[in-house]
Amino acid sequence: MAIVRSQTPAQGLARRERTRAIEVELETADVTVDRSLLFAEDVAAMVGMTRKWVYTETRAGRIPHVALGRYYRYRRDSIDAWLRQIERRRA
Fold first, then answer.
1. Which parts of the chain have pLDDT scores under 70?
2. Would you kindly state where each structural domain of the chain is located, as residue ranges?
3. 55: left (phi over 0), alpha (psi -120 to 50) or beta
4. Sequence-ordered alpha helix ranges (H) in 9-50
5. I want to staple 42 with a disulfide (CB 3.0 to 4.6 A). Which of 38, 59, 60, 84 is the partner?
């Protein structure tokens, strides 16, 4: 039986801090970093839904995303365009 671990807010913050530290290292290496990649938690906050909902919709192919191995990331401009598209369909 698999153990399901939920992530605490502190763990999410620690992960984002590690990601930022890597970005800083890459900046000093003169490599361009796309800072517009979002985590599922960020997208969930943008749309007012849960992280689980974002992952479910992502796996179903209904949210634009970037697959990085087993991880999903989201481009801010793609999410904004996706939301505008939904708004136009509803209008």
1. 1-7, 21-35
2. 9-90
3. alpha
4. 9-28, 40-47
5. 38
Residues 39 and 25: their CA atoms lie apart, in Å, by 20
- Token pair of 38 as six digits: 């979002």
Phi and psi torsions of 88, nearest 5°: -65, -40
Instruction: Report domain 9-90's class.
Output: mainly alpha
Chain Cα centroid distance, residue 86: 19
List phi, psi (to 5°) of 3: -90, 125
CA geometry: angle at 76 spanning 71 and 80, to 5°? 125
Give the pLDDT confidence of 46-71 residue by residue, as tens digits.
999 999 999 999 999 999 999 999 99
Supply the pTM of this predicted model: 0.60
Provide the β-strand partners of residue 72: 67
